[in-house]
Amino acid sequence: MTVLTRRVPYTGAADQAELEHWRKIAAKAAHTLAADAPERDRRNEQPFAEAQLLREAGLLDLLVPAQFGGAGGHFETAFEAVRIIAAADGSIAQLLAYHYINQSGIAFYAPPEAQPFWWERSVAGGWLWGDSVNPVDPALQLVPEGDGFRLNGAKRFSTGSGVGEVIVVNAQVSSGPQAGQVLAFVLPRGREGLEIVDDWDYLGQRLSASNSLKYHNVRVEPQDILGPVTDEPVSTLLTPGIQLAFANFYLGIAEGALARGKSLILARPNSWFLSDVPTYSQDAVFQRTVGELKARTAAVAALAEKLGRKYDALLALAGEVTADQRAELAVQIAELKVVASETGVDVANRIFEATGSSSAASGVGLDLFWRNVRTHSLHDPVDYKKIEVGAYFLRGETQPLSLYT
Q1: What is the DSSP string of 167-219?
Q2: For the chain, which end, N or C, has fewer CB atoms within 10 Å of the first or last residue's CB respectively?
Q3: pLDDT tens string 35-81
Q4: Within 35-170, where are the H helices?
Q5: What CATH number is attached to the domain comprising 149?
Q6: Are residues 138 and 124 in the same domain?
Q7: Number of domain units in the chain
């Protein structure tokens, strides 16, 4: 077994060959998903087939270090794959984005000597990683029992839990020597007492398997535990990573809406009766609308790519990451979250202005982009991200560490 000596195993940065390789793989998967995305969305079934598509493409192991059987890729690459998938199907992009963050809990929470056990099992089992960590839900009860624990309670918005082989859970120990400590641990989807409530029926992101979970006296074994959730700077980079993942699939949805809108505009016959050009695509009114949306999306893309590289660079410092470095990057990612959220929603909404009333027909599926980005952009209030940016810029103040900041 390979032994790790670093707090996190990520090193270096993505080169052009890595990026191009995974762009092609993600684009192929996106092409498959795009063929029937609106129909699958309407059926609102658990996305087992879609998860298998990601697995067969090798995307689930992109971030697993090469010495443990993975591709040894970088977060810049992973987030770009999420962005490409989002242009076709925002739900499945969310599933993949959360998988990358949940799986990376191995690096952020587990001690170096325990990580090979987790990485190798994930690859061997073809695991998709779901989660059950929503911090605004009522707290779970994690009660010591023998050498392990018993878990009771419930969590909503547990993305990937309906189809993931494993589910990451965060819970605070209620009593005993570890009382007050928050532990991150991993449960198989079929663990006795774990009830998956198939209640995810929302406006958008309908295939993200974001069900509620109920825990009925679930046994948590010592070998299920990744480690404690701490304020170590490199470990707390998990949260900026979550926000960076969000921004990338909002960006991808905007790019997908633009691409679909372009095809619809080019297919529109004739032009508005007051226009002096023969087609809508030649009309300056519609060109201006699309041009504005395209330019704003391109600006978000440039910032996302820059921060993807910066995130990898900071992770490569491992235990040498400082709280100040962590804070600076978190605020920069908050800036991206603000513009990605607002641009994604605006693009997916205003593209209808250029595609016309016929594009609102259910069979066209253009509404899927807006429904998806509108739903997930409510995950945490973007106004608080603006405050985070403003407080740091004006006074150098940072927000308290959490799963949101």
Answers
A1: EEEEEEB-SSTTTT-EEEEEEETT-TTEEEE-----SS-TTS--EEEEEEEEE
A2: N
A3: 999 999 999 999 999 999 999 999 999 999 999 999 999 999 999 99
A4: 37-43, 48-56, 75-86, 90-103, 105-109, 115-125
A5: 2.40.110.10
A6: no
A7: 3
> What phi, psi does 162 have (nearest 5°)?
-70, -25
Q: Which two tokens stand for residue 11?
A: 């090193």
Instruction: Please indicate, yes or no, whether the overall pTM of this predicted structure exceeds 0.90.
Output: yes
Residues 206, 252 within the same domain: no
| Counts of helices then strands in the chain (DSSP H, E) | 12, 8
pLDDT of residue 2: 62
Sheet holding 129-132, edge to edge: 129-132, 166-172, 182-188, 225-228
CATH number at residue 319: 1.20.140.10
140-188 confidence digits (pLDDT tens):
999 999 999 999 999 999 999 999 999 999 999 999 999 999 999 999 9
β-strands 141-145, 129-132: how paired?
unpaired
pLDDT score for 110: 96
94: burial class by Cβ within 10 Å (0-12, 13-18, 19+)?
buried
Q: In Å, how far from its chain's centre is CA 205?
A: 12
Which helix (H) or strand (E) covers residue 150, if one does? strand 148-158
* CB of 186 closer than 8 Å to CB of 168: yes
Tokens of 357: 């009333």
- The rounded distance, in Å, linking the Cα atoms of 244 and 231 is 19
Q: Are 268 and 171 contained in the same domain?
A: no
Tokens encoding 54: 């990601």
pLDDT at 4 (0 to 100) = 66
